[in-house]
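Feature request disguised as a bug report, sorry. It would help if multi-protein outputs had a clear separator. Right now it looks like this:
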Amino acid sequence: MAETWIEVDLDAVVKNYQEIVKLLHPETRCMAVVKADAYGLGAVEVARSLARAGCEAFAVTRVEEGLILREHGIVGLILVLGPTTEEEWPRAIAAQLQLTLSELSSIAELNKVCSVMGSEQSTLVQVHLKVETGMGRTGFRFSELEALSHVLDQSPHLQVTGVYTHFARAARKDRAYTLDQYQRFTSFTARLGELGINPTWKHVCNSAAFLDYSEWHHDFVRIGTLLIGHYPGQGFKGKLKLSDPWIAKSRIVHLRKVPKGTYVGYQSIYRTKAETQLAVIPVGYADGFGTGPHFTPQGWADFLRLVIKNFVALFGIFLGLERVELKGKTVRIAGKIGMQLTVLDVGMQECSLGDEVEIPLRRTVANPRIPRRYRQDGQMFSERVMEEGVLPFYKEYSLE
């Protein structure tokens, strides 16, 4: 029996997908972003459930992520958003993954690999052009358009299927930067048309832009954050009804009653204020518990929140980590979180060894070795059972 595990409600993911689809234009489809193992939920299981619900397109960052989906029966469009390498291309082409082009130097080599794999034009790879409009990461600039057109003319094995960009500030209230990015995108695509390049699909909206810029939905919206039950920011709450599919749990493996004044943990920063019970759960930093991404303050108010959070930590009060629940009641973390063990001050409430505790474990930093248990249609499946095909593979979808 696992002492720490994660429960993923696939029905909740599907409900989020269905809520998203309701807001789409008739000609627009949802491209489910299942990168980073579907933000920790499990890319294969999430993609299978979404495919059964009608989702026809998926996006990942790396070729290996797309190959895993193919190997587990996911069909239809799979777009690799990140840069790829020559070593990865043969397997990506064989698996019919759609690749992103974002630099001129790789185009001729990709075409050459396709020509070696087939004869004449029998081997094609569908590609999407990434446009750099203000993210500052990857993508073609307007000044490269003529050169891009020339090299594509010399690459008969590449089929330009899509063109897209990525917004840097779509979650902010100030719309000026995002409007400027979109204007650059439209200028880019207009010039592409003049040069005789007419991609089948356009897509620009991430989760935030999907909610705030419905006029830009185009052929696809790329949705990741909303599918896993998160809003892109506080200002988006209420714009869409979301279900949270994620619950992380652990079990009490040690329980002891201690007197008032007992010191707990490294540096003895926590001291019990009354007679209480200390419960140990087998989860810590190595599992992603108590860790999170680095956030840059967005204004003075955000900066003050970070300062206050760090200040009160000096007194053993960890804001944001206190939502540990035992039998429906919130309990405190006693002292510092350890590498693989954490102590809880559970008071004098009735509890015993083996009792379940819900813990606030971030999806994207949760250790992938923690077992995932999936709930769907009223049944619970383990990851191993699902991979062996207890849940059916789904019919092939055509995007024609």
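(second protein starts here, but nothing in the output says so)
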Amino acid sequence: MTDAIDYDLFARIAELGSISAAAARLGISPPMASKRLARLEARLGTRLINRSTRRIALTAAGQQFRDDAVAILNAIHSAEARAAGTTQTLSGPLRVSAPTSFGRMHIAPYLKPFLDVHPQIEFTLDLADSFVDVLADGIDVAVRIAGTVPAALHSTVLAPNRRILCAAPAYLAHHGAPQSLRDLHHHKLLAAQGQSPWRLAGPEGRVTFDVKSAVQTNSSEVVRELALTGLGIALRSLWDVTADLASGRLVQVLNSHQGLPDVHIHAVHLRSPAQPRRVTAFIDHLRALYQPIPPWERPIEPSS
């Protein structure tokens, strides 16, 4: 049992590239993790990692041992599952991060079916609009809305992220609707920090439009609320405003221009030769929710 525990620790260190991150994932202190790693190296009679002030790197022996340890751990898990007759039972911690609005609207309401099937998973949902470092923050699955994903991460595209320009009827009644991009210079615009410039696609191709927001905020949710009150025009994702468009609380403007089409909703995680099944199971759950056509992309019928 001691060997298997130490193998698991080493596999986590190799996966996360950090002794402290592996310790946090396993719920032990960094000094204890370092002590167990040193004990493993002493027992094997070889150095498995080269340590530096910033990051660790596997030695040649460490790379080979990582592959062997992962294979051993997978075999142990499979044997235990077969013996227990619970090949479909998933357990352990699963930490997921997502943008605040998306997580609140399109993940949290659909967690119960997943956890009903996998009640032994210890689920954590972190919502934030700021950048989340998957490695440093110990995130198992991060939902990101982006055009590209770093090569160090494995990405599964969950859905397209179509974005439109929209405003409340009250705003349009008072200021009129823009007929061209040039008209936007004469309108009040709304964007959170980091959301300017707007990158749009239209008849003239890809264009960039600098936005000076009428209100400064770090919250994308606040931008949506300000648009609903009639304060200005915002560039919003359909997943965020479909219900408001259907009810008439928001109206699409400048239909000829939308956000760039190469931005998608991704589920990302660290690349690992031994990805826990609970990670792939949750990603499959999200794919079933959003594919082949996500709910927010289905035809909108205006309310009567």
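Even a blank line would do. Unrelated, but nice: The chain has a mean pLDDT of 87.
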